[in-house]
Design brief:
This protein is an alpha/beta fold and 392 residues long. It has two domains: 103 residues, Enolase-like, N-terminal domain (Enolase-like, domain 1, 2-Layer Sandwich); 250 residues, Enolase-like C-terminal domain (TIM Barrel, Alpha-Beta Barrel), CATH 3.20.20. The protein has 14 helices and 15 strands. Strands 4, 5, 6, 7, 8, 9, 10, 11, 13 and 14 form a ten-stranded mixed sheet that branches. A three-stranded antiparallel sheet has the order 1-2-3. The chain has a two-stranded antiparallel sheet with strand order 12-15. A hairpin with a 2-residue loop joins strand 1 and strand 2. Helix 3 crosses helix 11 and helix 7 runs parallel beside helix 8.
Length: 392
């Protein structure tokens, strides 16, 4: 059995281009789907996949670990960068899809079988229309309360918001009061039985991140995400120790070595590896095993397309420390047309029941993908009041 071709299919989905990876074998009807979506780097990722494919054509797709090591260690430069890491991830996910199809079982059965009966999903306020939410800065905190109520009406028992505004390295109390008012409005709207998460998007400096964390501590957040740059591991650890709120981070980290540093510093209570960036299903399973040793929870970053979601779900059903999965359910109205899925989502509680089909349990409708060809994403630029560049 050999790999005969590795294709990329780009599908424009509003604020991002989904990059689907299709690995074709010499066995009739046997192929696998992966995803290597990386916003504003689509051309780079497609090129990186083409480069890596030269290593893999003619190889046996069942030797997943061997092929992963080749992609990571060959060409002299290790696959730690975001573009190369994303390319490796997309290919690796597709290889696991193939292996599940060869053995006729879902991927989670390849990894020891189910450890749970269902997976809980959480949404972003704004119904998954991320660009609308990021660009909206409501003056009235009650808007956050309305969005929170809508999420609960849609069946979610957990949601995340961007209540922390873009903040200069040092500011006064105004942005802190603003964030507190927004979170209070959400908590008042949904009560204590609903889990609320706040994502800082690593916008604050370490000092401002500390101020936000302490101000929001009384509201019982499920977790407080990326309070400062992930490069500032020591500062994230200081924030983790200063508040009772669980701190989460990791969506921008590539590979097990970056997560090892975060875990060694006891910087977080929740790691958030992105399966489409961190090295694919092979690497995220190693990362999760390391987190298990530190008794740290796993909640994968998953704002991309449907293959990313299927991979995150399969990973979750075989991972003991997995607690919740990010869900984008209405980013484009035709999302369900591009993919058929083996797992089912119960609207009440927004919980996922296991996939029963082989591999990832999905199939991509390539005719729908062709209807939405590549478009340049809208570049996101953020500037502070004084004109200096800020973090988006």
């Amino acid at each position: 059995m050999k790999i005969t071709a590795i294709e990329t299919q780009v599908c424009h989905a509003r604020m991002r281009n989904w990059v689907f990876v299709k690995i074709i074998t010499d066995q009739p009807g046997l192929w696998g789907w992966g995803e290597a979506t990386l916003e504003w780097h689509t051309r780079s990722v497609v090129g990186a996949i083409e480069d890596l494919s030269q290593l893999l054509i003619g190889e046996d797709p069942r030797r997943i670990e061997h092929l992963w090591q080749m992609m990571y260690r060959q060409h002299f430069w290790h696959g730690n960068g975001i573009v190369r890491g994303t390319a490796i991830s997309g290919i690796d996910i597709a290889l696991w899809d193939i292996l599940g199809k060869i053995h006729g079982v879902p991927c989670h059965e390849l990894w020891g079988g189910r450890v749970r009966d269902y997976i809980r999903l959480y949404c972003h306020l704004g119904g998954g229309k991320m660009e609308d939410f990021y660009q909206t800065r409501p003056d009235d905190a009650s808007r956050f309360g309305e969005l929170a109520q809508k999420a609960v009406e849609d069946g979610f028992t957990a949601f995340k918001s961007m209540a922390v505004p873009e903040t200069m390295p040092l500011e006064g109390l105004q942005p802190v009061y603003y964030a507190e008012a927004c979170v209070k409005a959400m908590r008042d709207a949904v009560g204590d039985s609903i889990d609320i998460m706040v994502d800082c998007h690593a916008r604050p400096s370490p000092r401002m991140g500390m101020l936000f964390a302490k101000a929001l501590e009384p509201y019982g957040l499920y977790f407080f995400e990326e309070p400062c740059w992930p490069e500032s591991i020591e500062d994230i650890a200081l924030i983790q120790r200063a508040v009772k709120t669980p701190i989460a981070s990791g969506e921008r980290l590539i590979g097990i070595h970056a997560f090892r540093e975060m875990l060694e510093h006891r910087a977080v209570s929740v790691i958030q590896p992105d399966i489409t960036h961190c090295g694919g299903l092979s690497e995220v399973r190693r990362i999760a095993a390391l987190a298990e040793a530190y008794k740290v929870a796993v909640a994968p970053h998953n704002p991309q397309g449907p293959v990313s979601t299927a991979a995150s779900i399969e990973f979750g059903f075989a991972t003991p420390s997995y607690v919740i999965c990010e869900s984008v359910h209405s980013d484009v109205p035709w999302r369900t047309e591009v993919v058929s899925e083996g797992f089912t989502v119960e609207e009440k509680g927004r919980i996922v029941r296991p996939n029963t089909r082989p591999g990832l349990g999905i199939d991509i409708d390539e005719s729908v993908v062709k209807k939405h060809p590549f478009q340049q994403e809208v570049l996101q630029r953020t500037f502070y009041k004084d004109g200096s560049v800020g973090d988006w």
